[in-house]
Design goal:
The chain is of the alpha/beta class. 28% of the residues lie in helices and 37% in strands. Strand 3, helix 3 and strand 4 form a beta-alpha-beta unit. Helix 2 packs across helix 3.
Length: 171
Amino acid sequence: MDLKEHIRSIPDFPSPGILFYDISPLLAHPDAWQTTVERLAAVVSEHQPDVLAGIESRGFLVAAPLALRLNLGFVMVRKKGKLPGPTVPYTYDLEYGSDTIEIQADAVQPGQKVFLVDDLLATGGTMNAAAQLFRSTGAEVTGAACIVELTFLQGREKLDIPITTLLPYDQ
């Protein structure tokens, strides 16, 4: 199945000059969604993680069913202030400023193997920050996977973990 047939391109969203790759049609098509989960499950299984970490917010949609399918735990990586209870933050630089992501303080234990999941890899900044965040807790980040990769943004060059993407886009 050609999964690209289920990705919608939306020009000028969220701002002029941006071409947004929308996974909503993929999620809405049962066969395409099932195929996506199966392909990602095969990738994740190779890394034998203890827990999957979904990056806010569409990463939750991808990581949660994968975790269920693979009988793994699921952890949410969220923007600052969105998680209840004690959290572990990680602040990272953006092109114009900085951002902070967090996990709950008891989300992972030192030595646990964490695999990162998101819908899309663009510049790699948030994915790299998530890897650093988990490492700061003593967890081992074994790899990452995304449905879509914007290869022209060269985000994988910022990562020091193996990453697999299903659908590369060159523009």
